[in-house]
Design a protein that fits this description.
Number of helices: 13
Distance between the termini: 87 Å
Strand content: 5-15%
Number of strands: 6
Radius of gyration: 28 Å
Number of domains: 3
Oligomer: single chain
């Protein structure tokens, strides 16, 4: 049996004392850090945060932490609870300054009617329609909106390697309801929309696109076409399946929506001349996907582009009831159109010829 000597006991006590000292030092450092940050945040410049309707103290604390505004979200939540702010936090924009305490932030978050304008961007809107919406809402930044559509101004993974084309950010201005401060610049508005897209397009989506052998831009291009071709949630994955069937068989997509985008005119009926317009967006002339997205799709259409329905259909048309009729052969497609008085003034011979490729 080992006998502890005086020297051994002394060494053990020294070790314990050292551990206690380290713990105390860590606690002191932590306390100082908490007191310093909660007493006055450290910001290099003012930061504007948009607080969405329904956000509580926990969500707000995490957003502030993720944006590098506060260092201790748990302390922020505790201070909100103890200070009676939990039921007082209001949606809208809040501009935070260097040196503000957590209490100052909570008081500002509790102020109602902050200077923001609510703007609704519908799914499937084009960039030009978004600009018009911002202008109608009275936001001064609308005049500079086009100048802010430069991908080099932003740092997002999904913007890497975009092909050369006009309207490079088309497809990535995520449709949603935004509370936009009246003082926001066009670049801040665009960044707000890109950030929303970034939150929707998760790592799972990047992995799925890679699994399909497609780039993010190709996925969003497909999603933008789906968005413009159907408004029915139940049909989106099937419409995606039709377009993938056509792509994989070497057929042209022949989407009227892509021609409408090329024309800059949402004509309900296309003429033969319309389908022959020389444009990289014209899928009646060009095989494969167009050069880029034709609208800004919502989350459901992005999901449909990533997980299309497995279908044997290659065609679809709109019925008089408002639903789409899906057909496997061109002959059945023609019958469906005739039965719904949908034979339009377009050149269908190309589609008929492509039918033999399946």
């Amino acid at each position: 049996m080992a006998i502890k000597t005086k020297e051994t006991r002394f060494t053990v006590w020294k070790l314990i004392a050292a551990i206690i000292s380290i713990v105390i030092l860590i606690c002191i450092i932590g306390y100082v850090s908490v007191m310093r940050d909660s007493g006055g945040i450290d910001l290099a410049q003012d930061v504007t945060i948009i607080i969405e309707d329904g956000w509580g103290a926990s969500t707000i604390a995490e957003v502030l932490y993720e944006n590098g505004i506060i260092k201790h979200p748990k302390v922020f939540r505790l201070q909100s609870k103890l200070g009676g702010f939990d039921d007082q936090l209001q949606p809208g924009a809040v501009t935070l300054h260097d040196g503000m305490s957590y209490n100052d932030i909570l008081e500002q978050l509790s102020e109602a009617n902050r200077d923001t304008i609510r703007v609704v961007i519908p799914e499937g809107y084009e960039a030009k329609q978004i600009q018009a919406t911002l202008a109608e809402a009275g936001l001064p930044c609308a005049e500079e909106f086009n100048n802010a559509l430069d991908p080099t101004l932003y740092d997002y993974r999904f913007l890497e390697g975009l092909p050369e084309r006009d309207n490079k950010l088309e497809g990535y201005l995520f449709p949603a309801t935004y509370e936009i401060p009246e003082t926001f610049t066009a670049q801040e508005v665009v960044n707000l929309m890109l950030k929303s897209f970034d939150e929707v397009f998760t790592d799972e989506y990047y992995n799925r696109a890679a699994e399909m052998g497609m780039s993010v831009d190709q996925i969003i291009t497909m999603a933008s076409i789906i968005e413009r071709e159907t408004n029915a949630t139940s049909e989106r994955a099937k419409v995606a399946g039709v377009f993938y069937n056509r792509l994989n068989s070497g057929m042209k997509l022949q989407s009227c929506a892509t021609v409408q985008y090329a024309l800059s005119d949402h004509k309900p009926v296309l003429s033969i001349a319309d389908t022959k317009i020389n444009s990289p967006y014209n899928t009646y002339l060009n095989t494969g996907l167009p050069i880029g997205p034709i609208s800004n799709p919502g989350a459901e259409c992005i999901k449909a582009a990533l997980w299309p329905e497995n279908t044997d259909a290659y065609y679809f048309c709109l019925s008089t009831s408002g639903e789409h009729i899906f057909s496997t052969t061109y002959a059945d497609h023609v019958k469906a159109m005739e039965s719904n008085d949908l034979i339009m003034n377009v050149d269908t011979s190309a589609v008929e010829n492509e039918d033999s490729k399946k």
